[in-house]
């Protein structure tokens, strides 16, 4: 009877089963990966490489590495992939080239491998993501998937409607966030990780991060445009009915917002299902040599003040549809749509 009661409580505890299922799926994937030699990329730091004397070519790096027996990479190679002396594996060095490795020696202390790195990693995706802090359990998955997509940067923003306790997650301090980025890079067979930064508000993000990308202080531009709009509204209130603006139609609105005169090679987009200006489906193809900046709010979306900031900073607010999405889902869906519009999925 006691056993039945405990079992019933475990079934009722969703968080337990969610964790259990995640672990089971992860174990299953490892078992599947162990059947293929070309699934996993083993990454090394430059400091771990013992460059060979005859490795003088810029196109290729020849090096030897040693992995202690308790290193997770050694455990993965020997216990999961069942590699032996003479076996090869896919290898890469952080922020560098990829290639192959060959195990030359296995001892009780660890394994020794020779690396031949002669391939360039996948091209970076010129997309910077600014997102309101998601739940910690979502954050890890989000960072992993952003790294898999090759995004240039992920900025975590404390938004006005977001849950403030989310920014206290330990993932940013205990290495969990960095591990998630590495996991995503390995999945995509990449050696470079997105830059990760934290901002206390949307205002700070517009001021600091985007000024580096666009070369323009967008928050100063926001204040200037708001002042001009205030003067214009005062003038209109004393005159007759204002004329309909030339960009009233959605097509003209897209063209107006995407023609960013302050930074013509930077596309500024924001996901907003509550008060969108247009939908992602109505977005025209973007120039391939551009850099895209995508802003996604927290679970509760953007505040009216933040929408005003985004619009005044030349962001075009786009709808992802009528359904309410999780933050991580909205980020990945929007990123994929932007990449498609930039012609990066061919």
How is this fold's topology laid out?
Layout: H1 2-12, H2 14-33, E1 41-44, E2 50-51, E3 61-68, H3 72-80, E4 88-93, E5 98-106, E6 110-119, E7 125-132, H4 136-148, E8 151-157, H5 176-187, E9 195-199, H6 202-214, H7 218-237, H8 250-258, E10 266-271, E11 278-279, E12 291-296, H9 304-312, E13 316-319, H10 327-341
What descriptors fit this protein?
single chain; 346 residues; alpha/beta; 7-stranded parallel sheet; 6-stranded mixed sheet; 10 helices; 22% strand; disordered N terminus
Q: How would you characterize this protein structure?
A:
The chain is α/β, with parallel strands linked by helices. It has ten helices and 13 strands. The strands form two sheets. A seven-stranded parallel beta sheet has the order 9-8-7-12-10-13-11, sandwiched between helices. Strand 8, helix 5 and strand 9 (195-199) form a beta-alpha-beta unit. Helix 7 crosses helix 9. The protein is elongated. The protein starts with a helix and ends in a 5-residue tail after the last helix. The model is unreliable at 1-38 and 218-253 (pLDDT under 50).
Helix content: 25-40%
Largest sheet: 7 strands, parallel
Structural class: alpha/beta
Alpha plus pi helix count: 10
Largest beta sheet: strand ordering:
9-8-7-12-10-13-11
Oligomer: single chain
Distance from N terminus to C terminus (CA atoms, Å) equals 60 Å
Order of helices and strands: HHEEEHEEEEHEHEHHHEEEHEH
Roughly how many Å is the radius of gyration?
Answer: 25 Å
The fraction of residues in strands falls at: 15-25%
Uncertain spans, ≥5 residues at pLDDT below 50? 1-38, 218-253
What is the molecular shape?
elongated
What is the average of the pLDDT values?
79
- Annotation, overall tally of beta strands: 13
